[in-house]
Amino acid sequence: MEETILIVDDEKDICEVLDISLSDLGYKVYTAGDGEEALQVFEKMRPSIVLTDIRMPGMDGIELLRRIKGHHPDTEVIMITGHGDIDLAIKSLKLEAADFITKPINDELLEIALKRARERISSRQKIREYTENLERLVREQSERLVKAERLIAVGQAAEGLSSAMKNITKDIEGGLTYFNELPCLVCIYNRDYEVVAANELYKKRIGDRVGHKSWEIYGLKQGEKRNSPAVRTFETGKGQRSREIILDAHGREIPVIVHTAPIRNKDNETELVIEISADVMEVSPL
Length: 286
Hints:
Blueprint (H helix, E strand, L loop, with lengths): L3 E5 L3 H13 L3 E5 L2 H11 L3 E5 L7 H11 L4 E6 L4 H9 L4 E4 L4 H58 L7 H5 L8 E5 L5 E4 L1 H7 L7 H4 L11 H8 L4 E7 L5 E12 L5 E10 H4 L3
Parallel strand pairs: 1-2, 1-3, 3-4, 4-5
Antiparallel strand pairs: 6-7, 6-10, 8-9, 9-10
């Protein structure tokens, strides 16, 4: 990308000579004869580097430096000084000038000062890009963490509810009313793998599936029933977690994260299975 530079000097000859030299070095050059004009050109062209004389009538180079750095701190400013201006040169460095060179201007020293200015610009850009990438990575990891916590919470809910619901066998429908506020699909299967109760969200999204076999909810055939999380829970006596596809009331597919947990009777036999499903499309935006 072509580097832009603004030359500010009340001596027209110096501006012309520097214009030719810097253009030959590949810079896009703008010029101004005093501080006020320099600010106007700067606001319009926004050069990345400003090369300004310290002593000028009206607004001097120190004030111009202060104005530019006050509003655009990333702009690099190189000061042109006379041999007797060392105190002003030091003052300019304290005001964040990139460097200073003395008159008469030595081309080699000018190139060195410009190289330093470009390196400062490049370093800032790299730091900015690194920071933006780091912020993006933190944002992405945070989103993954929130999503993982949501899924873990669903799993813990399924496991915890299995012990809390041992007494709902006599009143299954009454028990599930406690889960109508839960933003998940909740249903209960009996030993025949049939749906015996479901919360309101389940009924709204999936329909009235009481009496339906668990594998039918997933669009499976009886020969594929072992692929049903509820069947696996009854057979193993252990809770399951898996990604599945549930068919809604209109036969459309809903991708879900399914957690199941066994509900045991007093003989520690699996009497029922509670199944809690989280819609992947609702979990992902988190």
